[in-house]
Design a protein that fits this description.
alpha+beta; six-stranded antiparallel sheet; 42% strand; elongated
Amino acid sequence: MNFTVISKGDDKSNELMNRLYDRLFAHGLTSDQEKPDIVISVGGDGTLLYAFQRYRHRLKTTAFVGVHTGHLGFYADWVPGEIEKLVHAIATMRIQVVEYPLLEVVIQFDRENKKQSFLALNEATVKTKEGTFVMDVEINGEHFERFRGDGLCISTPSGSTAYNKALGGAIIHPSLASIQIAEMASINNRVFRTIGSPLILPSHHYCDLKPVTGDEFLITIDYLSFEQKNVRSIRCQVAKEKIRFARYKPFPFWDRVKASFIGD
């Protein structure tokens, strides 16, 4: 079995990365940064998001496992004190794969039907560079509302506990193939009106965002952030691809939610 380890880059994470390499080599496993069977993320959720984007072209064949070196992460099953258990599990146990749904974002540009596609594990956000964000929201090709405000956040179920939750969105179990649209400071008065509530779309529905004023936007895909010009529309839907996590021990989703937000 081939593996690679991606570290957050701090001293603690680097030390654990080196230990993982040494112990896994001792068990006869080989390292392959190009075509790994398993990617071990050492750090936090941000480190695993980076690992996902780096290997998103190998989602059908590569599985991910996380070791967190800071606060409890939603994508990290293991703590530093369990390194030996993790190494033994990878070397001797058959992988139990758990799949989580992803978000596909397709940006359509004005010229020559140019398109650009992205995958997000957590969420995508859309804002304007300046002024009020005004966007027509269509669901399955039908106009739903004209949104005015700071922007929109479209999240996956596993990403529903991140920025989406801070915006008042619902927490969705990752077994539900869906996406969620949450508003950022919408403008609601006697002239302008939005739904004022998060929307949850199933896998067979899609959402199109179409600019009303301006065509330059600030877009984030997980930790990636960039400007896009000449945007005609942005389509968001549940992706056909899924991320595969290597599970060697149970850690139910609701236990993660409780540990992160409620505690003992």
